[in-house]
Amino acid sequence: MMETDKDWKDNNNAENRLLSSTIIDIKNATDCDLTATPQSTVTTEYGKQLTYRFKSTNAFGNAEYTNTFTNSSTINNNNNHVSTKGKSKIFPGRIRKRVVLKNGSVNLSKERVEKRSQRYLQDTFTTMVDIQWRWNLLVFSMGFLLSWLGFAVVWYLIAYAHGDIDGSPSSSSSSPSSTDKPKCVNGVDSFSTAFLFSIETQHTIGYGSRYTNEECPEAIFVMCVQSITGVMIQCFVVGFVFAKLSRPKKRSQTLMFSRNACICLRDGKLCLMFRVGDVRNRSHIIGASISALVIDRKITSEGEVIPYYHNRVDVKFDNSDSNVFLVWPATIVHEVDSSSPFYSMSADAMIRERFEIVVILEGTIESTGQSIQARTSYLPCEILWGHRFEQMIGYRKDTGQYRVDYSKFNNTYEIDTPTSSAKDYYEYQKFVNSTYSRGLLPVEMLTDTKTKDEDVNTYSPDSGLSNNSYDLLAYPFPTRSE
């Protein structure tokens, strides 16, 4: 049976819908930008077998990592329905949802907690501060309303017992001469007037025609109790609102982390780097310290599988430790050494790994003295191998101030970087060192005109060496450059 133009278009539209849905699923799972290139289409007895090549454009910047995925789907030409039943998974075993989202929120849901509500109520203050504003307003409104109604009932009962309410036993049995007897609360002769008097007493609005007198001692006592209760409720409300408004949660929104992390050479060592900055000019973060950890899968020597193992990595800022002077954007560096979890990872191996780098910045707000914590995370597809951050700090002579251009905060550029693992690269450096010390290098490399850079076994092009010798010694492994 010949396939008509309409059937071909229907099949093509169905394939495009399936492909778009697949790309969206991968992007939602990995937070990586993907492009798909069709490779081949094979018709089998089970339907059409679509083969596409997915490219992660964030893997190495312009140099894209590729992976081929074949998806079998049954296409019904009558209703253009694509059945994805039994389709193979995209990147099986390679997709990891974030533990910490890019905005710092923790992607975690705690379920089946025993006596959760009771535990939350025992910690009322924290619960009230953490809940949303709509629930705060509801709780505050209900608190005021219930207190007004509760004391209104008390005032009504006092007036009813004293015979101030028409129809009460005391008022009906009273003698005519008792009609001139003063009331407990002047002006309270119904529940509505008792409710209004309750509001006036609790909020010290000021008495008008309704007021208490010395006729009923119980009325004086209730008035004092309600006044104290009203002050306490208002203190609680002010305390909750102030604590909620003064939280440093929103302060972390002015702290920025770079969109990507980079791996490049610095002082002859492979380093993983990312940026952090504070956009505020006056209220700085004092005592800022930064830490990082890698969440990865680990198998112990006993065979125990730890799916989310926390491995802390050492980070530093310039020549200092993890303390950061955050007056301008800082580039945080992690040296990939023998203690690093990335020591044996090459560029191609890293993009295939499943891990998440969680970065935590802690400090104290200068203006309020409160502690603050900002978080973000990086997936393997967000690590740019062979890239370096652009400089964004300059000096303006006209104003005499240093200038920070935040439009370049996420900008990187490519540089020559070995794509081998740090372990292989350092072993090669040791080999060249030992070869050089024994005088086994070519004769033209041993002349007096040679100069050696500070980086171990990395020679500059103006050192008198030939281009071939320089390329061999400087970057013996495949490099990724423009």
Description:
Residues 100-248 form the Potassium channel inwardly rectifying transmembrane domain. Its main location: membrane. It catalyses: K(+)(in) = K(+)(out). Belongs to the inward rectifier-type potassium channel (TC 1.A.2.1) family. One of its GO terms (molecular function) is inward rectifier potassium channel activity. The chain is of the alpha+beta class and 482 residues long. It folds into four domains: 5-83, no CATH class; 133-245, Orthogonal Bundle (Helix Hairpins); 251-414, Sandwich (Immunoglobulin-like), CATH 2.60.40.1400; 422-474, no CATH class. 30% of the residues lie in helices and 28% in strands. It contains ten helices and 21 strands. It has helices at residues 5-30, 116-122, 124-130, 133-162, 169-172, 191-202, 217-245, 347-352, 422-437, 467-474; strands at 34-44, 47-60, 63-76, 81-83, 185-186, 211-212, 255-257, 261-266, 269-278, 285-299, 305-313, 316-317, 323-324, 330-335, 355-365, 371-378, 383-385, 387-389, 393-396, 401-404, 412-414. The strands form six sheets. Strands 7, 8, 9, 12, 14 and 17 form a six-stranded mixed beta sheet that branches. Strands 10, 11, 13, 15 and 16 form a five-stranded antiparallel beta sheet that branches. A four-stranded antiparallel beta sheet has the order 1-2-3-4, covered by helices on one side. It is elongated. The two termini are 51 Å apart. The model is unreliable at 57-95, 174-178 and 443-482 (pLDDT under 50).
